[in-house]
Amino acid sequence: MAFPEIRPRRLRYRASVRELVRENRLTPSSFIMPLFLVPGENIKTEISALPGQFHFSVDKVIAEVQEASSLGIHNFILFGIPDYKDADGSSSWDDNGIIQRATRALKEEFPKLNFIADLCFCEYTDHGHCGVLHNTNSAGNEEMDVENDKTLENLVKQAISLCRSGTDIIAPSGNMDGMVKAIRQGLDSSGFSNIPIMSYAVKYHSAFYGPFKEAVKSAPSFGDRQTYQMDPANSREAIKEVLIDIEEGADMVMVKPALSYLDIIYQVKNITNVPVAAYNVSGEYSIIKCAANAGLINHDRTMLEVLTSIKRAGADIIITYFAKDASKLI
Ligand code: PBG
Ligand code: ZN
What domains does the chain contain, in order, with CATH numbers? Predict the structure, then answer.
């Protein structure tokens, strides 16, 4: 008796079985939702560069977080437009700064939720760079650069002030050398040894940050951030950055942006044993919103496909402006 030839088969699963064998799932509890804070009261204004995202005053952000948490979102990253800007970005370590005020209010209202602080200076400096400059008068000067060690000192001040206001996770994004180590030491010696560091370990010099810079008015007034952000052509350098940050004490590492860098997320996941976060950045979000508004693509399907691809590449955590939209569907 002849046995039938054994062939690979593609089974036509019914929906419930498709769900059973699904390899990657999106969950609201692995999303981090960005929030944009502004000084003042009673403000909730849509950000034109980020359709569906808003500038909130501290009093108005409470309802937004309430709604998100009812959808299962437990993690938020806060960005702010500060009360004042100066050359060093000193409003970022003011205990009464915009993020500090927002964090205190949010932690009082929602002690169980996590509020993450982005640690950088581009939102707080009048020149829009991510640290202290060598020569702040050198508009247009090719020699302009960020002074690494002075910036580290300020980052530690910023981190400690944010922890005092109740921040649950510190996320340094400025790409300074020795950043994670300096912050870890600063936190440990100030009674915040239990606060994790989520490092923006791999941060590319990307055009996809465009809408964000519009939202926080942080576009550099001259030059760009090429000297301290990674070249999109490099991948081995990403591995180096990740290993350095973990060595320095990073508890989680982030790849930013996500979509043009899925290969990087995949590699980082394979060489580390810490949670990997991916930042689905502003340009990646606005492109989908605009194309969907123009009737070119299906919003919900595109969104879920993109978020799933980030998950499939290996991200444990996804920072996304789609957090609420996606959580309503999954
Ligand atoms: C730095 C920071 C930026 C983003 C997150 N944190 C701006 C930058 O790196 O230039 C961009 C996020 C996005 O585009 O959504 N504070
Ligand atoms: Zn910055």
Answer: 27-329 (3.20.20.70)
